[in-house]
Design a protein that fits this description.
359 residues, nine-stranded mixed sheet, 8 helices
């Protein structure tokens, strides 16, 4: 279905003010944003307007009661100059899984995709072309009822904005397995990409930063021994040639798009892989006997992020140098090549934006 979207373009682009040599991540924003409002039981007033501040009522329910969800997608240009995005259809589906869990309306997948396409087309000039840089796409939705009361909101806003970005991590990271704090329990919202899941991680993350670690490796909330995920990524470890990653069965970790892509590739390459409970004790044992060969995070922001050390209590386990890791190096090269359009996409993971005239 093709939706009617009104478009109000900026009179003068801010592109010339952007310093592409110092992008960072999530600090620079393009000229426009997409907005759709949900009221009277349907999505209405679809529009693209100049990027800027939005007004909100002091009693807006998402501020007080946390009905807020989001997604993250990356886009680039291939060698022919086509705008390509990596598996945005999965993000559209996952947004709606999060919406259902958070008692929010779903966004039609074709509306989600049209909003992403139109935004990339209108702000095409902002898409970075340098190696290692890309366009980050942030679709999100939040409740907008103007009333204090613990109930399902009747009104919502869905938005999309764009941010040209550099790499999220510039070097291998150190992670710390926290046995003090908990991110998610079975039956909770761990599988949803909702803002509250991230808010609760900020203070613990600051504590481990003081210990010299970059991210928390979350453990389960009951026994505090089984790996869940890293603050911004899913976790994989390689022990004695076998790739291990926590399963999705308990609903405590995010079903990552990159995670799914990694598992597809490992299966095709006939690399032994298991989705199951992985304990920190198993990691320690493997490190002690020399079979802990690799550990890496997988996520949209970083694709594959090598882990150089895992901390737990007073122990710090140093892993092999990244250049000596066969599996994670191969995954990084393959996924980056597919995302950039330099490796043939045999999985139909690449979405090519169809350029249409935008008034």
């Amino acid at each position: 279905m093709k939706y009617s979207v009104s478009v109000s373009k900026v009179t003068k682009s801010n592109l010339s003010k952007a310093d592409y040599s110092n992008l960072g991540f999530g600090k620079v924003f393009t000229d426009h944003m997409f907005i759709a409002d949900y009221y009277d039981g349907k999505w209405q007033d679809l529009r693209i307007v100049p990027f800027g501040h939005i007004e909100m009522h002091p009693a807006m329910s998402s501020i007080h009661y946390g009905q807020s969800i989001f997604e993250g997608i990356k886009a680039r240009k291939d060698n022919e100059g086509n705008i390509i995005a990596f598996r945005p259809d999965m993000n559209a589906k996952r947004l709606n899984v999060s919406a259902t869990r958070m008692a929010m309306p779903t966004v039609p997948e074709d509306l989600f995709m049209q909003a992403v396409d139109m935004m990339l087309q209108i702000d095409e000039a902002w898409i970075p072309t340098d190696e290692g840089k890309s366009m980050y796409i942030r679709p999100f939705m939040f409740a907008t009822d103007e009333v204090i009361g613990m109930k399902r909101s009747a009104n919502y806003r869905f938005m999309v904005f764009l941010s040209p970005v550099a790499s999220y991590y510039n070097a291998p990271i150190k992670v710390y397995a926290s046995s003090q704090y908990v991110r998610a329990f079975p039956g909770g919202t761990g599988f949803a990409k909702t803002s509250g899941n991230y808010a609760r991680t900020i203070a613990p993350a600051e504590e481990i930063h003081e210990k010299g670690f970059g991210q928390i490796l979350w453990l389960d909330g009951i026994e505090k021994k089984y790996l869940q995920e890293i603050g911004t990524m899913n976790i994989f470890v390689v022990i004695n040639g076998k790739v291990l990653t926590p399963s999705l069965n308990e609903g405590t970790i995010l079903p990552g798009v990159t995670r799914d892509s990694v598992l597809h590739l490992l299966k095709e390459w006939n690399i032994p892989t298991e989705e199951r409970r992985v304990s920190i004790d198993e990691i320690i044992e493997a490190h002690n006997n020399g079979t802990l060969e690799d550990a890496f995070g997988a996520g949209t922001a970083a694709t594959i992020s090598p882990i150089k050390a895992i901390g737990y209590k007073d122990l710090e386990m140093i892993l092999p140098a990244f250049e000596n890791r066969t599996i994670s190096n191969r995954l990084q090269e393959e996924l980056t090549g597919i995302k950039d359009g330099k490796i043939e996409d045999i999985h139909n993971w690449i979405h090519k934006v169809v350029i249409e005239k935008v008034v």
